[in-house]
């Protein structure tokens, strides 16, 4: 599973993911006016990919303007289309092949593509999350949920039992036949899709784990379930996915800022410290003149001491920071995203949070120092399942609400930090190309050198012995 957040070029991300679908596309989006995305949906339906679309009809009737999108064409080419009219359907999500989910604030409109500040979260390889969204899609569109008493489900369960026995006997010869027969059944369940995909790819250990979870889920007998439970579970999964994506982006931002600080100290740190030292020395000669001059001296001294510590710290960090090429940085980023999903203190079960917190900080530290080897050691350990992820299985509404609210608070905190970070001048420079950084370096070095010359002259003048008249 991997989760990523996007704040720019969102339309391109949506089109790319739609183009990658090979089996099914389910879209529930409040407002849909973007003809480019709609054309891509039509293209995928014509290619044999089942497209299902659900939109809203509100008081403004945004989706059905005179020159709006020709939604009827989707049904004409074999797709499915629903309109929610009696209430505001405010969702913005898309499920691809029963395993990948696209969600976020982004409505599929021309305005969102041109001028809005929006976000999009893409989670790939998470059949459980996809199943939660598919369940919500079926609820919205009034489609019946299949249960363990359904004859189709019973046939599939029996055939899965045969597959499980074949895997236990290490006999894969007859697997393709059973896979094809299951695919012929009309069960729309992302977890089943993931099982069949793993079997076809010969990932039998993964298939066995998914199969056992699927059988257990359908074997549960539930007399009544509060509808709020499902809604809260979906909110929690969405918040978890978005929070982890934002956390990864915040970590990358801090890593970029640290790299910029190391570069800045390496290129200008010595000169800056020299200038600050001269400011301090000049202020020391003036400190006797007034209370204001004494304050100026203390500020100058503090600023010099801060820079001295910052430079020393940068040199220490630099000695423990690794240099990676583009391929190495991409691998580092991918490993980091997986690792934080397995040890984030806000995601693991409560009894593991105190143990997960230091591991999470170690993972973050290895990421910032670009230490691939250390990060890999942590990831190998985490993949063994040393921490149990907090479950959103059936529980009380009160417990789910408390977890939802805690995640929402953490989500808002990370988003605020990320917004502040992205808006800083240092972050803009950290992301700039070599030409912009070169101009910054030339301009600031020249300014510091000019100030140094002036301060040297002033300091020499102040330190000259006073002649008696």
Task: Give the SSE layout.
Elements lengths: L1 E5 L3 H11 L3 E6 L5 H12 L3 E7 L15 H5 L3 E5 L7 E5 L3 E5 L5 H5 L5 E5 L2 H14 L10 H18 L6 H10 L5 H11 L3 H16 L7 H60 L4 H29 L6 H18 L9 H16 L3 H12 L13 H26 L2 H7 L2 H30 L6
Parallel strand pairs: 2-3, 3-4
Antiparallel strand pairs: 1-7, 2-5, 5-6, 6-7
Helix pairs in contact: 1-2, 5-8, 5-10, 6-7, 6-9, 8-9, 10-11, 10-12, 10-15, 10-16, 10-17, 12-13, 12-14, 13-14
Give the structure's gist in a few sentences.
The chain is 64% helix and 8% strand. The chain is α/β, with parallel strands linked by helices and 469 residues long. The chain is elongated and about 105 Å long.
Give the key terms.
3 domains; 7 strands; Endonuclease, Chain A; 469 residues; alpha/beta; single chain; 64% helix; 7-stranded mixed β-sheet; 17 helices
How does this model look, in words?
This protein is of the alpha/beta class. It has 3 domains: 2-140, Endonuclease, Chain A, CATH 3.30.870; 151-219, no CATH class; 232-428, no CATH class. The chain has 17 helices and 7 strands. A 7-stranded mixed beta sheet has the order 1-7-6-5-2-3-4, with helices on both faces. Helix 1 runs parallel beside helix 2 (35-46), helix 5 (127-140) packs antiparallel against helix 8 and helix 10 packs across helix 16.
